[in-house]
Write a structure and sequence with these properties.
single chain; Type Iii Antifreeze Protein Isoform Hplc 12; 2 helices; 29% helix
């Protein structure tokens, strides 16, 4: 009985580790970002997702911190910010 619990705990730890390790860190819009509006860091938040669309290359925080970016279209709250969604101002 004790051996089964130890194996089960080990299995759960391994599963939890691999699901966290395969997650992708992305930036998500907290609120509405209008067309040609400047992207501000306080309007974004980090989120871990299992996968992103093939057409989406997620924007990094390093890139947003160095230059000013504006949106190329209306972005809904909760949307992942991709490189095609922003351009350098």
């Amino acid at each position: 009985m004790l051996r089964h619990k130890a194996v089960l705990k080990l299995f759960l730890i391994i599963v939890f580790f691999f699901t966290s390790a395969s997650a992708v860190d992305v930036l998500v819009a907290k609120s509405v970002i209008k067309y040609n509006e400047r992207i501000k860091l306080n309007n974004l938040r980090f989120k871990k997702v299992n996968s992103v669309r093939k057409s989406c290359i997620p924007v990094t925080l390093n890139g947003l911190g160095q230059d000013y970016y504006i949106s190329t279209h209306y972005i809904n709250p909760g949307s992942i910010i991709c490189e095609k969604d922003v351009k350098i101002y």
